[in-house]
Design goal:
Rossmann fold, 6-stranded parallel beta sheet, single chain, 14 helices, alpha/beta
Amino acid sequence: MAVIGLNAMMLFTGSGYRNAGVSRYTQEIVSRLVQTNHDYVLFLNGDAQELPFDIGSNCIVHRGFKGADNPWKRIAWEQTVLPVLARRSGLDILHSFLNVSPILDGTAQVLTVHDLSYVMVREAHPLRRRMYLPVMSRLSIHRASRIFADSNATRTDIADHYGTNPKKIDVVYPGVDKGMSPQPEHLIESFRSDKGLPNNFILYLGTIERRKNVDILVRAFAQLRRTDRYKGHLVVAGGRGWDYDEVDRAVREEGVESEVIFVGFVAESDKAMWYNAARVLVYPSSYEGFGLPVLEAMACGTPVVTSNVSSMPEVAGKAAVTVSPGNPCDLADAIFSITDSPERAQKMRSLGIEQSSRFSWDKAAEKCLLAYEGIIES
């Protein structure tokens, strides 16, 4: 049996925006891999004490320092301590789950690249990230034996930007939890009541940061209110990431303080109910490696409006309305096309459930395992 290292330093288990996209992806893949017939060494941050999955005798856990949400501490640990631990553990493969791997480690490297937002939408990242990631990801990508991309869009970005042979890149789509499904109406009503939510609301769910265009959504929502095309509320759910001031400014300038509800970070266990309770999910991001909220909402039977760029059309297929993410007028029209037509909304519910069934965490883990075994056998 091979010894496979899993660099899961970005797996977080607490409440907060860190326990979102990358953390969720890592958790779902790792939880399945450690059940397979190989030996694993799992590298975790010191804050991930209680894992939400079982570990057997085939898995050794190394916990690093606490405070891995500090990127510079994590980077220093990954580039200095992790290579030493990898050699001591006798790894055959080391899989890193966030765009960069230990450069000085001689182990065969597998790398997950979720997106190239730090290249494609540089303005959406702080300066230190724009300086570090392009250099280190380039070195890591060239060094890797195998690369996993979240979508064909990201696979193309990697190949085009870094000159990487596309045959070296596997598309490993994220999956959708079984709990993401349509819920009975009485449970939805009970959820709305418990959370103090209005009966009629548009939902954004995701990290609140510049490239997500939540400010554009606020302005589209205000336009719908001004033109009497929508009388409900906008609920913004998710932790605040980097550079979210434009969202608060849009709310003030549009005068919709009483109609926009910020609910903060949403626990994974509650997500399905948030999607079910909403009239429509709007996810107008400028760039995504995948766009998990789009998939999750469709699985819950919630109509979706999302962007017509990057990976979002690939995820949504024909089941969502796609629109240019930077235009409030177009976004408002797209939302209205659903809220004004119960027939269209119902058709989108059916199409969304069908589209979401094509994505599976089990399939994602299987693709990772096949790639590992291909490296071992080569």
